[in-house]
Design a protein that fits this description.
This protein is an alpha/beta fold. 39% of the residues lie in helices and 15% in strands. The protein has two domains: 131 residues, Aspartate Aminotransferase, domain 1, CATH 3.90.1150.10; 228 residues, Type I PLP-dependent aspartate aminotransferase-like (Major domain) (Aspartate Aminotransferase, domain 2), CATH 3.40.640.10. It has a seven-stranded mixed β-sheet with strand order 2-8-7-6-5-3-4, with helices on both faces. Strands 9-12-11 form a three-stranded antiparallel β-sheet, with helices on one face. Helix 2 runs antiparallel to helix 9 and helix 4 runs parallel beside helix 5. The relative contact order is 0.17. The chain binds pyridoxal-5'-phosphate. Pyridoxal-5'-phosphate binds next to helix 4.
Length: 385
């Protein structure tokens, strides 16, 4: 028998009534009435250019061929232009931010190294890091003092001579906190001074009010992780990228898995998405702001409930329930029964999972209103006496 690896993720506890977490996911996916506020996906696209491009690709049967293994040059140029990182950078198209994170973490870390992450955060990063590094230093950031984010000060306090990589999720899943220009410059300084690397995960960048790329300040010490899953509304198409200097990308090339390239239909959709971005982005951002305000109004009515970060710069927000005595898992189950899929805190935190739920709000406004109404009811009915 082959035993599970030492870094294996703790088995997820399937929600009540389901044999596995996969069965639960299949249930929420297949239920057409389910309001999908649990995965930070974007359901606001009305524009048809992305769909049309993919349908044309299917009809042409171009997908019979393998694509160029590192991505269509047109797509690569469009992503670099989108970020204003044309000159000294290269890009590798991947099957999503997740694959990109894995490749970069694998490429950079050695057993004697450690990586700095934060809690709450995107826990798969910690899991990937634990496969390659001796230690993962997950800094607790769920407090007002640090503004609910991993600050340059916290990085300096927690790093040691073995630190090789720092994870900056910006804006941060699940809280929606993001970095100022000054903070980004400080991170760049730390990386350059110590000759270590920054993993800048900008999956939620386009929802933010302002955003700064650390690659512009520390190009030789930054890897930027790009995803088409969120603002572009293409999560199921599994496409993203890694942007870094040619040297760094060369080293990533040595550990590639997807040697035959990324889905052709997804790449064609991604090209159409970037070309049409200027036509739809403002409407999507405006709607997410409005939706976030609907959630804020509901939260303000309920005693003992608050938003740690408001406004969120992502398309998700955390709602703290601790004072109410309501278990976030119980809240998630209650709402799921009402056909609203959200996530309990433990999905994104090992330390603070008993405090909050996470809600994604890039869904149609009427669905956010249903959430707001049901959430107020849930707090009334689940609050211990
Ligand atoms: C911070 C962060 N990075 C990456 C991803 C995954 O991106 P992708 O769908 O491109 O794999 C997510 C998904 O929720 C995320 O929250």
């Amino acid at each position: 028998m082959i035993s599970p690896k030492k870094y294996a993720k703790a088995a997820k506890i399937p929600p009540k009534g389901f044999k596995t977490s996969n069965d639960f996911f299949n249930y929420v996916f297949k239920d057409k009435e389910m309001i999908w506020m649990g995965q930070n996906t974007n359901h606001l696209h009305q524009d048809n250019k992305i769909n049309d491009a993919m349908i044309d690709c299917v009809e042409s049967r171009e997908y019979c061929k393998y694509p160029p293994p590192e991505g269509f040059p047109e797509l690569k140029d469009l992503v670099l232009n989108d970020l204003g990182l044309q000159d000294d950078f290269e890009i590798l198209i991947t099957a999503g931010g997740t694959e990109s994170l894995y490749l970069c973490i694998n490429n950079i870390l050695e057993p004697e190294n450690n990586m700095i992450t934060c809690d709450p955060g995107y826990l798969i990063i910690d899991n990937f890091a634990s496969r390659f590094a001796g230690k993962v230093i997950s800094v607790p950031i769920y407090n007002k003092e640090c503004n609910y984010k991993l600050t340059p000060e916290l990085v300096r306090e927690n790093m040691d001579e073995n630190t090789k990589l720092i994870s900056l999720i910006d804006p941060l899943n699940p809280l929606g906190s993001s970095y100022t220009k000054h903070e980004i410059q400080e991170f760049a300084k730390i990386a350059q001074e110590k000759d270590i690397y920054l993993l800048h995960d900008i999956t939620y960048r386009d929802f933010s009010r302002e955003h700064y790329l650390v690659a512009k300040y520390a190009p030789e010490h930054t890897i930027t992780i790009y995803s088409f899953s969120k603002i572009f509304g293409m999560a199921g198409l599994r496409i993203g990228g890694i942007i870094a200097t040619p040297d760094m990308l060369n080293s990533v090339r040595s550990i590639l898995i997807n040697d035959l390239g990324t889905n052709v239909i997804s790449q064609v959709g991604a090209i159409a998405a970037l070309k049409s971005k200027h036509q739809w982005i403002n409407d999507i951002k405006k709607q997410t702001r409005k939706n976030q305000d609907i959630i804020k109004k509901a939260v303000d009515q309920i005693e003992g409930v608050f938003l740690p970060v408001y406004p969120s710069d992502g398309n998700m927000i955390a709602i703290d329930l601790k004072e109410t005595g309501i278990d976030p898992q119980v809240m998630a189950n209650y709402l799921c029964d009402k056909k609203i899929f959200i996530r309990q805190g433990s999905y994104t935190s090992k330390l603070f999972g008993d405090r909050y739920i996470r809600i994604s709000f890039s869904v149609p406004e009427y669905q956010v209103k249903i959430f707001a109404e049901k959430f107020v009811e849930a707090c009334d009915s689940l609050r211990p006496l």
